């Protein structure tokens, strides 16, 4: 019998089954970024005006996310999930054995992935903007850097998805659903 079952039988107060973790901004940011990155990636050479507007929207979202990382809710703040390299590697090592501790917010590997993705998206935004300026209009080297950053970002997205699947299986919870509802199982 679990502790919460014991409390229910004794007439005590049960802890909530889920807790609020992801605030509305984080959820809207996450799914908007997924959509906009897909649009930007798929329209790169084909529909230039759509690619540009998706890129500008991504740049604006990333700027807001950085601001939210300092003033947002507890689990949205960088101080909650940005960890040092030793903590990240220890977590990854534990994950390979399916022995990683569960985190209500981002785990250390997830936090590192967020920082990497933000850095890559900033690089994509800057190089994309530069390609619209007179100094870099038609610049093949700048275009190649932009495309390389896009491909690296796509690889990071794939790793992010694999990490979400692994953590969901390891801890028996649907992290995709949590990013939709904003709620996760109580600790």
In short:
The protein is mostly helical and 187 residues long. It contains 8 helices and 2 strands; from the N terminus they run αβαααααααβ.
Query: Which structural category do the helix and sheet elements fall into?
Result: mainly alpha
**Into which percent range does the helicity of residues fall?**
55-70%
Assess the beta-strand content as a share of residues: under 5%
Shape: elongated
Mean pLDDT across every amino acid position: 92
Spatial gap, N to C terminus:
17 Å
- Record field, number of beta strands: 2
Helix and strand element order: HEHHHHHHHE
Give the biggest beta sheet: 2 strands, antiparallel
Rg on CA atoms, Å: 20 Å
How many helical elements?
A: 8
Poorly predicted segments: none
